[in-house]
Amino acid sequence: MRDAARARLALAGLALAALVPALAAAAPKVSFTASRSEGCVAPCAVFFDATATSDPSTDAPFHDLDHRWDFGDERGEHWSVSGLPKNVAVGGIAGHLFTHPGSFTVTLRVTNRAGESATATRTIRVDDPDVVFAGGRTVCVSGAGDFRGCPAGAAHARSGDFDASVANAPGRRTLLRRGETFAWDRVVRLADASGAGASIGVFGEGDARATLRAAPGTRAVIDPGNDWRVAHVELVASAAKESAIDEKGGVARFTLWDAEVRGFDGCATFWSPPKPDAEIAVVDVRCRDFPDPGTGTKFYEDTERSMFLGLEIDKGDPRDPRDQTEFAYRTVYSQKKLIQHGRFQGRAPNHSKCLLQLRHCSAIGPWAQRCPDGGTPSRYVIVSDNHFIEGGGPRAMTVIRVCDHGTCGGRPGESQRI
User: By C-alpha distance, which of 269, 253, 299, 211 is closest to 97?
Assistant: First the structure.
């Protein structure tokens, strides 16, 4: 009896010993979603979310696991600020702009601290804009009447007036002649293009952008619409008091790519307290030459599931004693957001506070509609591979500040982790 009992205990011990290594060696359970997998015309911005990935070794997989993305879109391109390749990313969320049509296999490999790995893949199909916007669904615009390089079958419009020429409707594309300047003297409120998509871009040989020049004393801004792409443009003003991109009503799936903003008091504003803007992509955009004196924030966004990649903001060197500039980049609500490969710089005079401020959603002010109890945290945010250059000045405070509404109004030392 005693020998039999010892034998059973020995067998149980062997089974337990075999089980413990098996548990320790368990690989992560990888899962991710894509904001779009088909029905998206190039340039197509896709937000990838792997926050549902789990691993038995940790209660904080977003922070503790190593997430490595390959977007299947290798073109030998690198971010100009960080020098890192555009086809790969690191982190529990990621974003990529597919600039060409095709079928792309996106691969996520996740590794835990024990070195165990697992992968998951997803296919993204990006539509060809020359097919989606074929024939009369595209209009080429040239003030000089030069339509070389315009897609076959597209309509021609001889005009130097951007406002009057843009095909502002779902399923339509406006192409401006590269290197030409177009007049712009009022708000262009882009129509809702949900599902069909719409686009403003360029045609012709070379790399030059088209320039939209705001007439002095006018309120020339672009008010984004759902599922629009605006690319290869320079938005230029002379001491304008507004943001060049000014959205305050709620928008989703808006992309600004390869653009430069000069002479506006703000680069872009995405502000919608009742419901955050979603799937906003700002990629390879430079903002500079802000007026002196200026006011407020140079880039403001209140978004979720969004990406700000390769964004460069130079507050400049304002010296006017009336200058009221505060932030280079400010966000009040941050839920699943990427701020990567950018450069934020400038002097800090008068009311200046910091180059980047991330705030927690609060129950005060207009945001009370979204978080009535103040319990909606900002989370799943990646700020990485950026350059922050503080230019000095009498009000230099901090480069990056993370806080809630209660502490953001206090001293720099009151900033808190959220």
Answer: 253
Residue that is written with structure tokens 């506006």 in the block: 264
Q: Side-chain half-sphere of 172: how many Cα atoms within 13 Å?
A: 15
Helices (H), 30-174: 61-64, 129-132, 162-165
> Which residue matches tokens 């980049």?
329
3-state secondary structure of 237: strand
* Distance in angstroms (rounded) separating the CA atoms of residues 58 and 113: 9
Average pLDDT over residues 84-110: 98
Q: How many CA atoms lie within 13 A of 268 on its CB side?
A: 29
Per-residue pLDDT reduced to its tens digit, 320-360: 777 777 788 988 777 899 999 999 987 655 556 678 888 76
* Rounded Cα gap, residues 393 and 321, in angstroms: 12
Cβ-contact 53, 60 below 8 angstroms? no
- The neighbour count for residue 138, using CB atoms within 10 Å, is 24
For 202, the enclosing helix (H) or strand (E) is strand 198-203
By CB neighbour count within 10 A (0-12 exposed, 13-18 middle, 19+ buried), where does 125 fall? Answer: middle
348 burial level (CB within 10 Å; 0-12, 13-18, 19+): buried
The full length of the chain comes to 418
The per-type count for the chain, helices as H runs and strands as E runs, is: 5, 26
pLDDT band for position 11 (cuts 50, 70, 90): very low
Q: What is the dihedral of CA 258, 264, 266, 272, to 10 degrees?
A: -80
Contact between 185 and 163 (Cβ < 8 Å): yes
Q: Which residue has the higher pLDDT, 327 or 30?
A: 30
Identify the helix (H) or strand (E) that includes residue 15: helix 2-24
Amino acid 114: pLDDT? 95
- The gap between the terminal CA atoms of the chain, to the nearest Å, is 61
What tokens does 350 get? 């008068």
Residue with tokens 């990629």: 283
Measured CA to CA, the distance from residue 281 to residue 45 in angstroms comes to 6
pLDDT for the residue 395:
54
Burial class (CB in 10 A: 0-12, 13-18, 19+), 415: buried
- Token code pair at residue 203: 């045609």
Q: Which residue has the higher pLDDT, 290 or 234?
A: 234
